[in-house]
Amino acid sequence: MGTYPTPPKLTQKSKTNSPQYPIPDNYVVETEIFGRNLKCETKYISHSKVNYVITWKEGRAEWSVNNTKSSTAVVNIFLQVFIINCLIIYFKYFN
Predict the structure, then answer these.
(1) Residues 66, 69, 75, 78: is their CA dihedral positive or negative?
(2) Which among 4, 7, 45, 63 would be 20 to 30 A from 84, CA to CA?
(3) Cα(38)–Cα(34) distance, rounded to whole angstroms?
């Protein structure tokens, strides 16, 4: 469920007047994308810095990517790793 530190870090503003929301510590969301079960977490590493983490499994291997800039940044890293893995599998089996 997550807890809110005092004071919590707030989400980045996408526009000048957009609202900011507090980011909870140890917050976990599980979802599925591209047939993979993903676990997305927030973990405070200091009073003002959050580590965003995505973990998933590929066969027997567990993968993990993280970033302290933003949740969007960690998703972009995940997509890069995922696409590279797909290309490796494609060329391994279809080339």
Answers:
(1) negative
(2) 45
(3) 10
Q: By CB neighbour count within 10 A (0-12 exposed, 13-18 middle, 19+ buried), where does 75 fall?
A: middle
Cα separation of 2 and 81, whole Å? 27
Specify whether the CB–CB gap between 34 and 50 falls below 8 A.
no
The pLDDT tens digits of the residues spanning 8-59 come to 999 888 788 889 999 999 999 999 988 889 999 999 999 889 999 999 998 8
How many whole angstroms separate alpha carbon 71 and alpha carbon 6?
20
What is the reported pTM? 0.83
